[in-house]
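TODO from last week: model ferric-chelate reductase (NADPH).
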Amino acid sequence: SVKGFSFQPGQWGHLSVPSISPVPHPFTLIPGDGASNVRIFIKVNRSGFTSKLAKACVDGKGPAMKLEGPHGTPCVPAPGMQRTVFVFGGVGITPGLSLAKAASEASQRKVGLYWSLRSLELLHRAAPLLEPHVDIENTCVQLNGAGTQEGGADLPLKAKYDMKDVFAWLEQCGQTYVREGVTSAMVFVCGPPGLADAAKAACKKSAGGIHWHLHVEEFLFLPSMSFGSKRPQTAPTPARSGKATE
């Protein structure tokens, strides 16, 4: 609960936990229950800040924290776009948990969704925020990894175990939109480089016969500099950026 803290869909904040790290860390902001409540979904890595934070919160109390921000200028909903679709990888879904609603309400149309993930827990936590705003017929959720079969028939968002590549999915969406008279749509991508590259290739070839406007969201917590074969990290500069391509 952060009294008086407000943010726009897609923005992020810097979470400062002095007892764990001298550097504030950027995380996407997700609406909570109530005007002054903010949620943050964090993927815990084996070591580093997120691991230390998880251990510090085991007792349910957690260390002293401060939330700075909000930061960023949301690019969704985009003016003039007749449709919006989202391509996510794993915990990259976090911007979509508020942007899907914003895009759907702005266009009065539900959004398309492509999401490849491994965490069954993340799927169940995110689904209630997505389902009211997602066009199920233009949705592809791929649930992979050990233990995911436990969800059985009760999986939300019609999660599947079969693989469908991003290009084929955008091709399908484009064809559907063209039949509805749509000439341009936006693709918002947040995920690993391979996923972003596949979306870029599909947009470049106008998959489905439609003109795609591409936005790739990137996390640049510690920018790296290239010196020969080594890539040492520069001074900590928590940030997040987006790249838009026509």
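Done. The chain is about 25% helix and 25% strand.
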